[in-house]
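Researcher: Let's continue the batch. This sequence belongs to Flagellar basal-body rod protein FlgF, and it's 249 residues. Same format as the previous ones, please.
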Amino acid sequence: MDKALYIAMTGARASLQAQSTVSHNLANADTAGFKAALANTEAFPVRGAGYPSRVAALHVDQGFDASAGALRVTGNPLDVSLHADRWLAVQAPDGSEAYTRAGDLSLTPNGQLVTSGGHALLGQDGNPIALPPHQALEIGQDGTVSIVPLGEGADTMAMVGRLKVVDARPQQLTRGLDGLMRNTAPQQPLQQAPGTVMTTGALEESNVDAAGALVQMIQLQRQFEMQVKVIKTGDENARASTSLLRLGG
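Model: Same format as before. Here are the structure tokens for Flagellar basal-body rod protein FlgF:
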């Protein structure tokens, strides 16, 4: 009976972990460029002495859904929507290079170009981009950043840098705990993507299907309740068996 309890417990634990993944997706349903996390379970045979009849449930992180989110036109010159397999290079909190598709950019008071999460965008030279005082800003579809210096005319627009936008397939990236993507093979640096890499004045929305995630959450909740019921039933049966043994003794 204890075997049944442990097997049911692994299923309940996997359901709880899957619920955590789905709730994380729902919390980011309105986050620009967010890619839904994928979770699943797989059978895990319990090895040991005796007949191999026990198979536990194991939660598996299957990465992220790489499909594109809906495109929303904003007209904001600091909003960019990246093309397929294109990722903005940013500076992670630990100083390393990381990647994101969150294109809702902004400027700090000191002229640094950052994402909505406050991560500094990197130029193609690998350094954070900081802009001098200006009265107009334009980001080209190839990632070039141009400005009209403060007090100058429109004909003085000059390029001051270029965003580092890398070409990376989903299998080349893994998501960190901070929500940023990392290169799965650091010894093979990701290269700058050539040509047109983005659409300016538009945002890629989250690819989370909120309605589908809610249905999935309900299914996982019912599944968890069934597994808990199995645990309770197994415990009650064990208590009843113990009582009978005591009476028989």
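Researcher: Any comment?
Model: Residues 71-204 form one domain.
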